[in-house]
Fold this sequence. Notes:
This protein has 2 domains: about 20-320, Glycosidases (TIM Barrel, Alpha-Beta Barrel), CATH 3.20.20.80; about 335-455, Immunoglobulins (Immunoglobulin-like, Sandwich), CATH 2.60.40. About 30% of the residues lie in helices and about 25% in strands. The protein has helices at about 1-20, 45-50, 75-85, 110-120, 150-165, 190-200, 235-245, 265-280, 315-320, 440-455, and strands spanning about 35-40, 60-65, 90-95, 100, 100-105, 130, 170-175, 210-215, 255, 285-290, 335-345, 345-350, 355-360, 375, 385-390, 395-405, 410-420, 430-440. The protein has an 8-stranded parallel β-sheet. Strand 4 and strand 5 form a beta hairpin. The protein is elongated. The relative contact order is 0.11.
Amino acid sequence: MKKSAALIVLLLGFLFSYNDVLAVVDPLSVPNNKTGIHIFSEKDLESAAALVNSSGGDWGYVTFVITESERDRDRWQKVFDQMRRLHLVPIVRIATKADGAVWQKPKDEEINNWVGFLNSLNWVVQNRYVIIGNEPNHSAEWGGILDPAGYAKYLKLFSMKLREASGDFFILPAALDASAANLKDSMDEGRYLRKMLETDPLIFDSIDGWNSHSYPNPHFSGKETDIGRGTIRTFDWELTYLKTLNVQRNLPVFITETGWSNKAFSEDQIGSKFVYAFEHVWDDPRIVAVTSFILSYPNPPFDFLSWQKSDGSFYSFFGKVAGISKQAGDPERLESGQIVAAFAQPLILHGSDFVGAILAKNTGQSIWGPSANSVKGENAAVRFTNYLFLDIEPGKLGLILFKSKAPESEGLFTQAVYLSGKKGQRITNNFPIEAYVTRVDLSQIQDFFARILGSVR
């Protein structure tokens, strides 16, 4: 008996640990809108939504940077809440602090601070997309030194700490500059990857997807039809190269930076290049998101890649990309809540409609509303319909009015109600309601009220 109990405990432990490891959702297993954009400020979110969720699209992606000095939970929760309302999926790239033209090398002791901050947020969708650093094969991005071994160790430790906090963190490595050469302040991407694997042959088991800066080089002015390294197909070269290094995982791809120089090409030319890219290159089934760089940065050093002009208007290629037909994405979002109180009118005429109310708190990620959520009861024979169901955002309390039909039989009517999610699943606790069904018999009414008064005493 003791051996059986021990075996059961062992199996349960295995199952729970297995679920933790596989908590992230394959973003390509659900409807996905791969169109995205890279932004500099949260002020650009509405323009981003107008771009990526246009022409049939929904739930497009937005990449942005959070530095160590910006870890303000209230600020970023407001940003996430706005992204939730705008149906934008966040991809967060973490960064240290800039010392002039050089970014400080990350410190291991800061990882716990990052994890605490990132885990304190109510994310927009179940997958919490986090990029660990940026182009460390440039010394300016890693404290002025080239250190692939150090980056590999940092990536592994950061990934482990995030997974310990939540299985929903979806880890992306820093994208590398595929066009960098072996110089004093830069390292060839192939060499950098080899040195990472020499440090830890299993380093890429610490990630959930591949992050690529697939720029059309040289000078951000290559052809959209070019193939291989240093083109808008760089992601394909990278994945193929990883296979030669015996990295056999089929990693979903996130192109978090790409784009053409508006100094080298006209607006119309860039628009045509983007249309071609989305229709003939980035239609690759491995790609989850393409967040071109950058929506609004009309001043140096990134003005040549900005989609917005200094006068506030957008280059015409904004409209070209907005006009591309897109898919309505439907990423997995956690749905949960707590019913605090529920009641129905105390006296109901048999067979007639009656109304009731539910006070509930949304503890999930989705915004509740009549199109996706409804009131249900444990007794399937009793039907409920939404009578008044205003949108309730995560973290908020809301009042829901419902309508139902009383049974024909007289007497005390009891029912447990709950809220269902977009797939019809239960997302809250049960909460009992009760009322008295009558045929307008005065003695029964008197007994009913006597019962209520007695329970109060």
